[in-house]
Amino acid sequence: MKNDTASIIHWRNKPPHNCLPIAQKLMQTTGLLTLALSANCGSPLSVSVLYEGIDDCLPDEATRLNLSHPSKGWVRSVLLNCRHKPVLYARSFIPLTDAEQADFLHQQHEFSDIRHIGTQPLGIWLSQQITVTRSAFEYALTDSHQWPHWQHQSKLQLPSRRSCFSTASSRLLLSEVFLQLG
Hints:
By secondary structure, this protein is α+β, with helices and mostly antiparallel strands.
């Protein structure tokens, strides 16, 4: 995957002020975002997997994780849907060296099980990982074209958040882009 947009996203420690109140509220959810989105939707969410596989990190992921760019890792990009309408785009990135890629693919890495969660929301899977800690959130307004594996026509800047989940030896960076929340 080649990311045509080498633009770096400018993440901050506070949510953007110029987004819908429901987005403001959901962006600051510290529990399972899937449950909060389902409650807002009034219906269980479905997950559409857009991409899963080894891919390059994005420039801002490299910066956040202190990696050289391009670095490789496991990428999972999904849409969470409410009544068949996308409400959230999520991208997870697990940095992997060449040696770690083989371990990851052979189920010998702390986050290897992510390859088998299918259409289960990542948040539910992460909540079952007892050795995982989560960093503080970072927030930004992002353009849809900055997110690979997703075709979205919006020209709007979309409220986004990210956080890093860590174990003793592994990291998973989760970026979430809030879409139609009304």
